[in-house]
Design goal:
Number of domains: 1
Radius of gyration: 16 Å
Oligomer: single chain
Strand order of the largest sheet: 2-5-1-6-7
Order of helices and strands: EHEHEEHEEHHHEH
Largest sheet: 5 strands, parallel
């Protein structure tokens, strides 16, 4: 029942929506930040590597065990990254799904030199709301909020998240 004593915010979205930037800004409010991709790779919490998708296949059981050990040491944690929408429901107080209009998302991914096929894959996921669907399926609609980052500056996005935490009595 350790998770009842801390606030966990999950930030998810397709690549380029601003997850890492928002999480970094959340650290200024006293949140321990866990960048899921980096955490998975550094701790070898994967079952293999999908060369076609150029992505690690996360071992969800190992991930949960490792995160559980870390979360016990903090009272405010933000977890960001692909796969964050699949953490145990009981751990998460708020799931923030960042979205972005496809034209802007394409620009961001191109500026990061994503290969054309990865850009199209991510644009398709964004158009169909894949991450949002997974987040709602896992956490339920009451724990999920959606923030469009197309035109928002990221300081404002963090303000929206902090206001939501306060509204829920979690700040």
């Amino acid at each position: 029942m350790w998770w009842l004593l801390l606030v966990v915010v999950v930030i998810c979205g397709t690549p380029g929506t601003g997850k890492s930037t928002v999480a970094k800004n959340m650290s200024e409010y006293g949140f321990k930040t866990i960048h899921l991709s980096k955490f998975v790779i550094e701790n070898r919490l994967y079952m293999g590597y999908d060369r076609e998708r150029d992505a690690y296949i996360i071992d969800k059981d190992k991930l949960r065990e490792s995160l559980e050990e870390i979360l016990k040491d903090y009272d405010r944690v933000v977890i960001e990254g692909i796969g964050a929408e699949a953490l145990p429901r009981s751990w998460v107080d708020l799931c923030v799904v960042l979205v972005c209009e496809p034209y802007e998302l394409r620009r961001r991914l191109e500026s990061r030199l994503f290969p054309p096929e990865k850009i199209e894959e991510n644009l398709e996921a964004e158009r169909f709301g894949v991450i949002l669907g997974e987040a709602i399926s896992n956490y339920g609609g009451s724990k999920v909020i959606v923030i469009d980052t197309t035109h928002n500056d990221f300081g404002r996005v963090v303000g929206v998240i902090m206001d939501e935490l306060q509204r829920r009595g979690l700040r």
